[in-house]
Amino acid sequence: MKRKFQLSASLICGDHLALGDDIKLLEKGGIDALHFDVMDGMFVPRFGFYPELLQAVRKQTSLTVDAHLMIENPERYVQLFVEAGADIVVPHAESTRHLDRAVRLIREAGGRAGVALNPGTPLHALEHVLPDIELVMLMAINPGIVGHKLIPQMMQKIADTRKMLKKFPKIKIEVDGGVSPESAARMVSLGADILVCGTSSIYKKDLPLTKTIPSFRAHIEKELKSL
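The structure corresponding to this sequence follows.
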């Protein structure tokens, strides 16, 4: 099976004291995009990155950066992340009563909007904003914890999302969590366009990013041929 896909590096899995160096290695390794996790300790039980750090990242690279907002009431902050340099700002459908407003504010600020869905959230939660977004981010694990294992039922959700988006061919599907050598090709074959890569794929203590990225990409391409 021949299908195009992109690899996006989850920056939170890298060296937080050397993100600039990490970004250079990611670019050298051929990464397609960067994934910037924002967490408030309330929507998820962790804290993540912030707008000022995104500004610093933006100065280091021209790669596409998506800001994944795992925060409550994201409409309060979406403009900050657009202004800080995010290409795509992605709030969670579960984090606000006014998802359409959050999407509208992103677009009014000059950004591109996406929507993230937790594993247990049905797809109809985003149907009303499909005309205004460019990305659906499917969480294949419960958000906020690095290294959790893939929830198997999320494979069917990827396929269901692809069917739902037939009328919206410009919307990309990004899968966050559980992306590994065992799951990645299957995700792509079912409809994923972008895979968020973390500790199960490209961030390895004993191997440089310049080797793990092309190796992981080649593995997916090889596996796809047999699907």
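The two ends are 6 Å apart (CA to CA).
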